[in-house]
Amino acid sequence: MSDVVLSLQKLHKRFGALQATNDVSLDLQQGEIHALIGPNGAGKSTLIGQIAGNIRPDEGRVYLADTEITGMNIAQRARLGLGRSFQVSSLAEPLSVMRNVMMGVQALQSHSFRFWKPVARDQQLLEPAYEALERMQLSHRAWTPVSELSHGERRQVEVACALALKPRALLLDEPMAGLGPEGSAKLTELLEALKLEVPILLIEHDMEAVFRLADRISVLVSGSVIAHGDSQAIRQDPRVREAYLGDSDA
Amino acid sequence: MTNNTSSGTTAIALAPKADRHFDRKGLVQMALLGLLLLVPIAAYFMGHIYYVNLASRMTIIAMAAVGLNLAIGYGGMVSFGHAAYFGLGGYVAGISAYHAFDYSLFMSWPISVPGSDSLLVVWLVAALLCALLALAIGAISLRTTGVYFIMITLAFAQMIYYFANSWPTYGGEDGLPIYIRNTLPLVDSSNSLTYFLICFTGLVLAMAITSRLMKSRFGAALTMARLNDVRLATAGISPYPIRLVAFVISAAITGLAGALYADLNGFVSPTSLSWHFSGELMVIVILGGVGRLYGPLAGAVLFVMMETLLGGITQYWQLFLGLVLLGVVLFAKHGVMGWLAGREHNE
């Protein structure tokens, strides 16, 4: 059990008559990429919300390593080592890449009620942030405002921001969304290298990337996990083909 | 320079730094501050006390706006109730002087609190009380955002306004006179130039503190809370306490300005607590340039000058203020400072 970094246990979430999450249990283990796929409206966003902390489940628990985080807010979960990226890039655009990435480093080192020392030359902040950027091959853009970056670079900054937290688990919400084939291939490569250090729960539409990257895949349909297994098993699962990959290719 | 980073790491390229001393922005800022300092000194020695007091008024209003700018400009918290702190600061000065004047007690139970005619005591109490009030108001108001935040801060300020209006001990709606200006050790605070210099020091300190604060870790977090609070939370920092502390510091600065203002005029009344004044402070911040260090100063100078010059010609001078504000909002998005000194970058 010590290999389990993130685990969801019997999560339920209902919005009025809609059962958005129905008895979902899954886990993320050291060294793997676990992909979560599902058609639109399957409840992926609701599930991510419950992991990240912006949605409270009605029932069930969420654990990060051995700590229960079900009742914690977004910031507390982040400090415990849950890094995430968003489906639509969520960065402070007028600020430089560095200033975005530095926030995570700052959160880890101490509380932010430090009023005097300037951050612009604070090596304690700059170095770890720079390292996170290097991991995403973006250090040459450190002082460029986010607003001047390409879409693909922004996706990399998002991951770098998460890495700055020295996370125990990464939650990546459609990191390939909107990337061209080239950008997608580059990010796939970066994530593949990353998973050895930080396990990744990957929510992704790009099936090519999912089948290439994922060690395990869970398929979410109408709030429930209907299938679970490696890419080979998922490709052949008839329920998945029906619900998600489309019956027409069968 | 000593640093405790591990050896062998390559030095990281720092943010490119502009030459700050001789660029346009630096010149405009120095000219503004220099004129504000030198004109009253010259006026004093030419015997025009009126202009010295006018400059004190500009300086104090600017300081109050520096406080509000920390909330609105740097923190993204559009407070429509900063008159509450300005007025409370003023009433601290007034009430303290009132009790010091007739040797009575502000309260006798459970502890006895006398008045004081010392400016240092007045400032300390004003800043502390305003911080406490802002802590209470902010703790509730910051649970809302947008229009609701504007309205709830206004509502709290109005409560305090009506409270002061209906408290006869301290003059009620007639206000409270301060017969003798509160004093400082060593210097004569009743001298108009001395008092101007005290106010000027207050303004410069408030601006220096704001500047330093915004460059610190706290400032980095506050900036992120304004630009993208989801990003801040995702990075592991809860936005709420950061905002609340900024709101409290902002109120304390505005409250100090209020205390200075009451002692300048020798009078404090509920007018200083009214929503009109909250609105004027907002107008000043917007005129000068939201979120710019020298914006409140430029805004206050412009505002008080228009009030004095145009107000002398017509009592409808605010019509012209409205036109200027319209012009600034439409054509100079970054305020007068943005127009004079160019755009400011966030680094």
From TrEMBL, chain A:
InterPro entries: AAA+_ATPase, ABC_AA/LPS_Transport, ABC_transporter-like_ATP-bd, BCA_ABC_TP_C, P-loop_NTPase. Residues 6-247 form the ABC transporter domain. One of its GO terms (molecular function) is ATP binding. One of its GO terms (cellular component) is plasma membrane. Keywords: ATP-binding, Nucleotide-binding, Transport. The keyword Chaperone does not apply. It holds the Pfam family ABC_tran. PROSITE patterns: ABC_TRANSPORTER_2. This is ABC transporter domain-containing protein.
From TrEMBL, chain B:
The keyword Membrane applies. The keyword Transport does not apply. It is a multi-pass membrane protein. One of its GO terms (molecular function) is branched-chain amino acid transmembrane transporter activity. Keywords: Cell membrane, Membrane, Transmembrane, Transmembrane helix. Its main location: membrane. It is found in: Cell membrane. GO terms for cellular component: plasma membrane. Pfam families: BPD_transp_2 (PF02653). The chain crosses the membrane at residues 30-52, 58-76, 83-101, 121-140, 147-164, 193-214, 240-261, 281-304, 316-341. InterPro entries: ABC_transp_permease, LivM-like. CDD domains: TM_PBP1_LivM_like. This is Branched-chain amino acid ABC transporter permease.
